[in-house]
Amino acid sequence: MRFSLFPVAALVLSVLIPQSQAQSTQSNNPFGDQPASQIIFTSTEGSTYVPMDSWIYPALDRLHSLGFLDTAFLGLRPWTRLSIAHMLQDSADAIDNSDDDQAKEIYLAVLHEVQPDIDNATVLFHPSVQLDSVYQDFRGINGTVLRDSFHLGQSIVDDYGRPYQGGFNDYTGFSVRAEAGRFSLFYRGEYQRAPGAAGYSAPLADYLSNTIDLIPIASNPHQATLPEGPIPVASNPHVMEATLSYHLLGHEVSFGKSDHWMGPDKGASMLWSNNADDIWQFQIDRVEPLRIPLLSRLTGPFRYDFAVGSLLGHTDPTGDWAHAEKISFKPTRNLEFGFSRMVVWGGKGHEPITIHTFLKSFFSFASPPGNTKYTRNDPGARFGNFDFDYRLPFLRNWVTLYSDSFVHDDVSPIDAPRRAAVHPGIYLARFPGLQKLDLRVEGASTDAGPVGSRDVKGQFFYYEGVQKQGPTNQGFILGDWIGRQSKGGQAWLTYHLSSKSDVQFMYRRAKASIKFFPGGTTQNDFAGSVREWIGRDLEIQGLVQYEGWKAPILTYPVFTNTLYTDTTAEVRITWYPRLRSPQ
Questions:
Q1: Mind listing the pLDDT tens digit for each residue in 288-328?
Q2: Mean pLDDT of 238-257
Q3: CA nearest 149: which of 287, 277, 26?
Q4: Within 13 Å, how many C-alpha atoms sit on residue 47's CB side?
Q5: What SS3 state is found at 418?
Q6: Nearest Cα to Cα of residue 337 among 347, 327, 346
């Protein structure tokens, strides 16, 4: 498999070439044709990331699809608080001169959230420390659920791999952040409680492990990717995010545990999302758009990200690591596209995690010989990605078309479309006569394989012959909830009560192929949710989801086509106290 070295070259050039307008104290617009309404002095300040489950992302996504927020890179999230301030700054004049009341309302709501970061510049010896949020999440589930990202499916997706089972589930958490000049610190932790469950029977676990995953269960009896019973009660504190960052030349260089969402889709990112628990990592993230003279005349401004860290829950081999790189371009204000890849390499009993093996995985240009795969020269399991989002002509402030795609053993989905997994979508930001109503529809498929054959038994996407548990962390796939060799989709119909409050209806379907395992699966979810605010500081979210699913293999070795159902009711209360230390 061959991959471009462009992300590496871009990183080097960004250090050698003087910083773009995005890092100056003047206009922050990389297109250079809209005057800034406010000067933000942030070229040397660190800033914490906004978690991916914040209300800010759907609000800014909608603002972008209404025809504004031209400097946003939807395929590289999360964003820092100051980078969000810059995006708002660039769009301020256009929004102010428009007659779009919804855009103005969203702008003011998000600006209110990040304004303290603009007003309160910090230095190393005069830091700012803030209790960011305190939340309580009650989740009650009646019925039998799916919690098997690697095989049969999930009842609850994009939830950081939290434990959940039938009965009463509870998550109590808080977050704090601090900035001191170029340094920033963010921590979010919670106490998680979930009931125990019967789990998979021994015959089913043996079949999935030995026949589907090709992992000898005798030598790997406890696999995070395989929920064999009995599953004990979960009751433990858990670190959700913990990041120490340093701002350097337009980058946030960080250590710790933080979110990633490497795609423009709402429902999933095929390479890396928050479907699994975040990994402990080292990261270099270009948080502001960069312009390189001459090159950016063709590509427009661009951003890139690099992260490397350890994967937990793997048993074949154990102790393997992953690194991911992405570069995204905006050749016009309406088009963004990006290239990315992920590599899983190393592990006890296979090859050590060293500089040598890292460089082997990073600078790999061709598929290695078969006998190399089991030596210290193995470049690892490599996955390539391409995504784009485009505001359609004549409908710039109405419709956004986007797609995410993914390949294994190929350079890119662009040169191997028939071997690619895809997750396309379309977003209608408003309806004629119903300006507060929007619709989003996405499809998903990983039911592909070598040309002429799909009979791969799930051993293609999110899987590899040596790194058999693929890009998973603590048992959950890092990427798309659709999982291995499956098809499905998701749709949302949302009525916006205000910029921060809404009522939403969601439908999700997933269907694992009968060529993955006998009988496959069929899963249908219907959900209604509401988000409301009491004052400026108290957010209340409520959700009710009904699910019906079939998985004949569940009763292996006897196959029964039983319909299982479960109902989830959830209430989450979040307080944003805005308690800031005096500087």
A1: 999 998 888 899 999 999 999 999 999 989 999 999 999 99
A2: 95
A3: 277
A4: 30
A5: helix
A6: 327
